[in-house]
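Model it.
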Amino acid sequence: MASVLTEKIKNVIVGSVFILTLFLILFHFTDTPRVWVDEGVFTEVARNLAVHGTLSIQTAPGQFFSMRSFLLSTSYPVIFPVAVSLKIFGIGLWQARLPMVIYMFLLVLFFYLFAKKKYGFWPAILSVLLLISFSPFYGNGRPVQGEVPGLVFLTFGGWLGLLWEKSDFKNKKESFFTGLAFGLSASVKPIFLAGVSLSLFLGCVVWAKKIWIGDRDDIEIGNSGEQKKSRTAFWMLIFGYSIPVSIWGVIHFPTIHSVIVFVPTYLFFAGNHGSSLSLFQTITLNLGRFVKESTPLLFLLLFVSVLVSFVFRWVQKKENTQKSASNFLTVFTMQFSFSECIILFFVVLNWCAYLIGTGWYRYFFPAHVLLYLLFPGAVFVAIKCARTSLMRKCIGVVAITLVLFQFYYLIYLSDTSLVISRTRNATLSSNLLSLDSHKKVFFYNTIDALVFFKGENYSQYLNMAGFLVVGDTNRVQREHPDYIFADNDVATSTFSCYIKIIQDKYSLYEKIAGCKDK
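Modeled.
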């Protein structure tokens, strides 16, 4: 009876947590964060895929600039679902962000499934609470971009990997779908392509004996059939991984030249582009953030906690293992799971990549989120190892305090605060919806506003720091569109036959009847 009651209580807790999750994800998801240029690019490409069947940016009605070689930063696992949503529900911000909020909910679900499978029920609940109270989860999750979708497939692959490992790496179906999920993660954006690929390689090297040869019992009895199952399953893992990555390659590299250009382009954007600092200075500067700034400092504390728990678990297992099986790799693979370590490898690689980059927090966001998947395991290892009841209670209080602090910050202090009203997206939508969709509109460096414009009779010019230049600024003088929607950095004299009728973050200009350019 007690066990039945306990299960009912657990079900109520799970249901309550997921209802809270759904509320937080959907709460004003079209108002915050505001649409920015990267999201504008991705939604514009998805829009043209839905309406015109091309992975391009529209520069004028019927004219398009191909983005196949520029979509590397957020690829088809994001663009395709957004295009489907826009195709079914029409053009708009909620339609574009709908797949993203679904991805967010899936990430929470896979967090729960992974942590419950690996660590148990309460660590799974703690993992979910840490994730949904983390304010960057909403700032980076709601916009159309690749971080959360990449994490969804990585976590899903990790959960499937736990199931595959439970079969002693012999189940071909589970290995195939594990590889498929990891491959989809790698296909989202370059940081996942590099990080997941290298993490999976390291995982296969460390677990090579178990995956390729089989377990000790199979070796001792010479069971070649069981060894063959393990090897076949391994090749199914590689096959599953190669399918989505191959699709990614076909989409983005239509020519040999585009393949050659990819590597230096990726290395340029992976580094501290736009800065004159040396590599050593960049690393030193970014390392300093982890002791001076709150978000990196929190990351460091979580990271150290997870690493300490891994070391402690390894030492503890080594002490309890016979000398015949006391070498490092044997003890390591006996104590840690394949999926758990692939995730930890990715965290380390993502952190290292961040150190050589621009220092923007978004670039170590995936690693930070994944620490919330591993940290509850570290907490419960510490609780089990605590010598007194008081120590166990203190550890539990620290974990609960972190959750409560994050919720307080999310609700009152964060950029996605629940108590601050934000109207920028609504204002943009109102301004553009008031325009006659049949009128000619020119978007001057305001691609982030296009998702609010319902018509197709538009032209545009876009300049993203000189890296991506799309369209023609002289089109205004040639075609005299009815309206110009421009950022406030452009000189008013550029539009000599137009009057400014709305000014906010952007300005809306209307053509003066009968005016002629000088």
